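Retro notes - structure team

What went well: the batch runner handled both jobs without manual restarts.
What didn't: labels got mixed up in the shared folder, which is why I'm recording both outputs here explicitly, each with its sequence directly above its tokens.

Job 1
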Amino acid sequence: MIRSNLRPVAISFAIVLAAPISAFALESYVLEDVRLETPANKTSILLKRVEFVDTNLTRAEAQQLFSLDAERGVQTALVAKAQAKRVFVPEIVIEPKGERTGLITLRGYEVNDLDRGRFAKVSLTSIDGAATDKAGAGTIKSGPIILEQGDFGRIINAVKDGDFTNGVAQLGKFSWTGFELVVPDPKAPPGGQMKFTLASLVGSNTYDGDLPVTMKAEAKNFTFEPAKNSEVGQNLTKFGYDKLDMGMTISGSYDVAKKAYTLTDYSLTGVNAGVLTLSGLFGNIDRNALLGDRMTRLSGLMQGDVSEFTIRFVNQGLFDKALAYYAASVNRPPADIKGEWSVAATGMLPMLLGGDPSALKLAEAITTFLRDPKSLTVTLKGKNGPVRFMEAAQIRDPATFMQKVNVTATANQ
């Protein structure tokens, strides 16, 4: 099984947080055969060559960045001040020891135009490796990983203060392609493996000063394939799938003047399953909710409100498979189950929702969907204006919810 020791890996990548260029005392040099040994010698990390171009760090300071013996506070201070035109590591070799054997190789690690936590670009060409321990064998592969126009300065300050969660990073663009991870399946007999893959993950953000104002991201073909003879694999087969193949898109924008956030699209897709899409309009989102420390962000968000929220599901096989799976589990025909669900929606749902008129429309839409499951859309709007998050959190029963929220629903449109 592939495992990681976060501290040495973080140290070997610490220069990511470094870095354009001081006008004085810039140096260029190469560190050869930089080796890190984790505590108890469980993992060895070898950086065969580390190239620094136009950096304000001395050779001795650069060596401290990659030392397990250096104090963490010293390393953080070096990262906070570091500048460099370029840092390049052609190859990083991670070798597990003890009960684990194998090699994991990271190639083409490069950082460009770094300045005290900001960077123009960080990239990694590939990852390739395998490891084996008493749990079994595993492999990892990855294509290029690229980060652009980043600023991790707030994270560095948060680390200095001792609370990593207080840091907020900025990132202009990012992409990751061709990932595959194979590990032992703990729910399968010995030798069984499960596989995770990702075809691509790409995204971009824009900022007004420090404030993020637009965000887009898309993930394609994130798959999970358990061992066929595992408990999960057998249940997945009964449900009608040999693997899960999913995707995601998200886009949103923040209006600084109006303190409003629009979630344009948050969609989860599944091959031979369907698409679940969320969208919404949120107000009174103060800048501190996006930039402050952890508690300030939470406090700022709790002052926000929602004026509209929409949930839409487009069926592409998931409902039919779920119905068949449940019907088989109770040994009854799927048509009988659908009929019972329709009766429950029509007769019980309006009562559960306090007899509100919109509950009848919701029940009608659900019944239409059950008869011919193509799509179902539900939109929520505050009856007396936006509903504050704190107010929504205090709702304890459906009747109270319906007093505050107007519900509209449509099916197969």
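Job 2
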Amino acid sequence: MECDQKATTKGTSDLEGLVYSVAYDLSRHEDGPRQKIGVMYHANLKDEPRVIAIRPYTIEAVEWVPDQGLYYTSKNDVWQLWDSQGTEIDRHIKKGKEVICVLAWVPGFGLCNAGKEGKIRRSVDEKGRPSGGVIAERPGRVYSLLWVPNHGLFDAGCTPKYHQIRKCLDKNTNKTDELIAERLAWKRMNGESSYSLPTLCWAQGIGLLDNGNRTSMENIPLVRYLDEHGNRCAEFLAIKEGDIAYVDAYKYAHTCSLWRHKFGIDHLIKTRSVMAWAQVPGQGLLYAADYDIHRFIDENEQVVEEENPVLRTYPHEVSAMTWIGDTK
């Protein structure tokens, strides 16, 4: 499989689209060693998606940075695949000690990364120059990193050592260490706690969302940890007749059975886990889960419940995605 060379030197309108990565499993035996390669696609949501990169390891994160280009992580490294004009340069930026899981662009500050090592670092500064320095250190793996304008840079983990949501930069990009919430967990029969994979998202008019407790092997609710004004809350998120409803998470944390609530509803998203989010003009807020990319909120900020996905990725799950273009 070869990269599509049409990816080089494009205008802004040609670059505009959804970039997402999937993992191809090349393992020959179920009980043998896992062998996965990362494949990155570009989709304008009109034509068939095209391959723009293939790497020997899973592509954990992708991030579009205005005026700089497209960045991604693979194993312990941060790379820049394209410049701002879509010319393929594949420039190596930084090598970490452990797997780098997530990227987040902070305007006026730079591109930040985090992962298995538990350290949140700056990869490049606001001018795109490689940068060093640790922003924050966590006791366990950081699985999610999200910049929210006017609020700050948030991170989250899901291991027994680190299963919180914290803020590591304030809205003015000053270092801070603010505990936002302890992520909800459920107890297994052996007494151990289980935490769903965190995928932080800021939804306009709703607030800071994250994967919640697993209600079954197929379904999870979402949890709202901050409201649209940045105030703390911890509520399961659900839909009743197309409208958003909030359920007291602490009251129902032990059962995670939303259908027992007075709203008489099941759960918001029928999936094992939301793997990635992207805000797309004309489409709204998209999420990736279970071999598909779906719409969660439309361009009018209304919740949608559509059975047909925006994009099919079967038989591969999306590990990360980002939108190239204006998000307003």
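One thing worth noting from job 2: The chain has two helices and 27 strands.
We'll revisit the folder naming next retro.
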